[in-house]
Inverse folding.
């Protein structure tokens, strides 16, 4: 809570790059992609964790962020001295700077709730829910009573800014369907004069980015992405699937999520978000 209150006081700087998401929508994957793009596809050092390089604003608070350095690999040419920050805040609570850059990753609510359920059961250090049922969790998610509140409100808040020049709005499903294209759009967003040309000129860099950010590769090093969780629970990097929700969500529950989406977005907007959101 302390970090949360303090994090809200952070004054966003022009060289900030913020990866914003509702939890379980592909935050870690995007953070890692950004890091790899800025560092020519070289993975983080063996003794480093992603959250040291790319801290979570409302967890660590203002002072930590202010003290954190920019892109830590000073040998990477053109890393632009970005300060890398992660947040799960809705747009209106996220510290703003008209020159800072924001990447928002959306995910369909059905895969998100399933992922968040497993996450909540597994993180016994943070939650007292290791034996909790999916039906109980679903109800909490639907009514915005889970960590970081209402999924639909957060998605709506960022969707409203998807066309802002300093916002890149992507979906987890886009990333899954065509990771290469998504990587290039992130590269373009980070610096159109530097990264797209570098990645396209040297396929090796692009291939390294795709290799190190792949689900299989990230699964091998769980300690880099998350604090430890008991072995009997599902790992942090889990299935990474689109549509796995069908195994757990009943027809009635799916209809309730669809209804919330229809209340929150117009048909056109749902079409734009993609099939998984309708
Ligand atoms: P699942 O639980 O559905 O597998 P976040 O980082 O926001 O907590 O998101 C976690 C979700 O992203 C998990 O989804 C996780 O498996 C998935 N994920 C993490 N790294 C991934 C990668 N490299 N490729 C695809 N999905 C990834």
């Amino acid at each position: 809570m302390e970090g949360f209150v303090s994090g809200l006081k952070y004054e966003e700087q022009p060289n900030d790059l913020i990866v914003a998401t509702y939890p379980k929508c592909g935050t870690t994957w995007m953070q890692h992609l950004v890091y790899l793009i800025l560092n020519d596809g070289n993975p983080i050092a063996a003794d480093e964790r992603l959250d040291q390089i790319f801290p979570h604003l409302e967890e660590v608070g203002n002072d930590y962020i202010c003290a954190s350095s920019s892109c830590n690999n000073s040998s990477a040419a053109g890393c632009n001295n970005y300060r890398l920050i992660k947040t799960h805040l809705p747009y209106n609570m996220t510290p703003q700077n008209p020159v800072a850059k924001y990447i928002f990753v959306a995910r369909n609510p059905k895969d998100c709730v399933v992922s968040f359920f497993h996450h909540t059961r597994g993180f016994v250090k943070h939650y007292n829910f290791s034996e909790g049922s999916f039906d109980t969790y679903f109800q909490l998610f639907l009514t915005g009573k889970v960590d970081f509140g209402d999924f639909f409100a957060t998605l709506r808040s960022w969707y409203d800014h998807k066309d802002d020049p300093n916002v890149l709005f992507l979906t987890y499903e886009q990333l899954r369907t065509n990771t290469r294209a998504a990587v290039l759009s992130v590269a373009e967003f980070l610096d159109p004069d530097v990264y797209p040309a570098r990645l396209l000129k040297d396929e090796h860099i692009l291939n390294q980015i795709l290799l190190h950010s792949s689900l299989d590769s990230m699964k091998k090093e769980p300690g880099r992405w998350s604090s430890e969780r008991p072995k009997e629970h599902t790992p942090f990097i889990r299935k990474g699937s689109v549509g796995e929700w069908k195994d757990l969500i009943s027809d009635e529950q799916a209809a309730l999520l669809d209804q919330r989406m229809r209340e929150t977005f117009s048909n056109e907007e749902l079409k734009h978000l993609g099939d998984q959101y309708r």
Notes: Residues 21, 23-29, 111, 115, 118, 213-215, 218, 237-240 surround adenosine-3'-5'-diphosphate (CB under 6 Å). The first strand starts at residue 16 and ends at 21.
